[in-house]
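Let us practice reading a record.
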Amino acid sequence: MTQAAYDLNTKIKSSGQYRAPRVRVVRGRSGLDKLRQTVAALRSVLVAALILGLVVSLLYSQAIITELSGEIESARQELTQAQSTYDYLSGRMDDITSSTNIQEIAEGKLGLVKADASQITYITMEGESLIVRNQSDLSKLLTGIKTAALSLIGNFNP
């Protein structure tokens, strides 16, 4: 019987099973591998910087939006207050300028009285300059008495 030579690369366990040896491959580090690692690290740094920049810009835009929202709300409150003041003053002006209110103020506070028709003088300037005055009954009576008195005095003079 022939026997096989002992193989040093294989180990036989006590149970008699064959087990393959563990092999580990180690590559030598060349300049290209170092460049690849540097590019991979740089890529990771750039991605992290880009994400960080996006997060910061998002936070900044949210801060600006919050600030502008506050300004808008402040302007809206000022507008509401201005509209309320305008409505109040407009209503107050309508009350003051109403004809009955003006008449009450003129008669009550200022002591003015309504004009009589005899106090109104109309002037027409068409063909010649004439002043036409409306006379009340009392002034007509007084004018008649004055004319009669002058006429009577004129009759006494020789």
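A brief commentary: The first strand starts at residue 11 and ends at 12.
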